[in-house]
Amino acid sequence: MDSGKGWTPRLNGDGKPIYQAIADAIAADRDNGVLSPGTRLPPVRTLAERLGLDFTTVSRAYGEARRRGLVVGRVGQGTFVCAAPPAAETAPATAIDMSMNAPPIPADSKMLERMRREMAECAADIPPRIMFGYGTTAGAGEDRAAGITWLNRRLEGLDQERVLVCPGAQGALLALFSSLARPGDTVLCEALTYPGAKSLAAHLGLKLAGVAMDDQGLRPDAFRAACETLGARVLYCNPTLHNPTTVTWSEARRVEIAAIARHFGVVIVEDDAYGMLAPQSPPPLAALAPDLTYHVAGLAKCLAPGLRVAYLAVPDRRLALRATAALRATSMAACPVTTRLATRWIASGLADALLHAIRAEARIRQGIARDILPADSFRTADGAFHLWLPLPAGWRPTEFADALRAARLIAAGTDAFAATDDAPQGARLCLGTLNGADETRRTLELLAELLDQAPALTRSVI
Fold first, then answer.
1. What stretches pass through the bilayer (predicted)?
2. Any idea what DSSP says for residue 192?
3. For residue 85, is pLDDT > 80?
4. CATH class of the 126-348 domain in this structure
5. Hey, which of 94, 205, 255, 369 has its CA 20 to 30 A from 136?
């Protein structure tokens, strides 16, 4: 590999900040052949001494070069020049949005082609009665059967009368919140919770009360205290690959929470959005406390958000009728076209193949994160395609959010998830929306550069 340890940038003194001028020089020397792809640039401290600059200016210059895709940093090895992209791929820098937690698109072209083919075949097979009908509120028999097949991976012993097909997890939650609570009621949840649940509670006039968490999930002592003092009758929770922290409750913790809920007569709404992605997760609450738990299993995170399909398992047939009435009132029914497509994918095995492909892609992106980011700077778990980044030491929440925006990184901060005033501070970074491994690496290098700076270096107020 070429060595550029003697390289010195030519700074033309055009009035630009020096860190930008150094990045410009890297670009110019790469384009004119002075720096060939793979060349290792001088260490930051060496170049700083050579130019008579301080360390932070050169560090910021290398960070700017990484942001532009000019160089790549490798832990323990140095900073290397990247090849120039073809002209058609060159585009102005835009913000990188990691705020929406969508699954990564599999890199397997054969998988994507199979998806297209089965979509086309499904469309060709749909009879007019499906296109010109509203569908059955609880779902057609074959679609509910497909839901049972899918849920059996985590939840056995279901029958069609206890499983409803819903228009996505949000549609299922709307029906449940509106039928299990009344305006003014309190619904308990984790201290950091799904933003969609916060929106539903506000829309329905419910009081969402966050319960303290630890590294195993919802704290039993805090849950018991909340049940005693708030008189709530509903707990909404996300026990597997928690959004946003990626925490998965242990089986012992689930058993303890279920016992407290039963003691106080609290029903549980278990949002299992990520459960299928976690290969070794404990049994869901619906398996441990089936008489108390409404289990929502959406397909958006584990297969494809575009399906807008979720399966709802309810405690018994009587409650299924009540949930069906709520679904009818709030959404009429799930879309029969996308529901039919989900049924086809489950029957053909494509759903399983796609689930495994998403898990594999998530592991690749997690590996990149572990290569680039400091080991103690984030939390994730097997199967997750998002990271939880606790607020770095020395940063204020608004200051860190401003620094992310300045680096053109869009993430969801604590405010999006907080259900209490003292919720843990941090940011959720969604890797699934990034365009493959290369963009994931470039994006996380920008983040690593930011984490390497002291907060004072990002302030521009004078």
1. none
2. B
3. no
4. alpha beta
5. 205
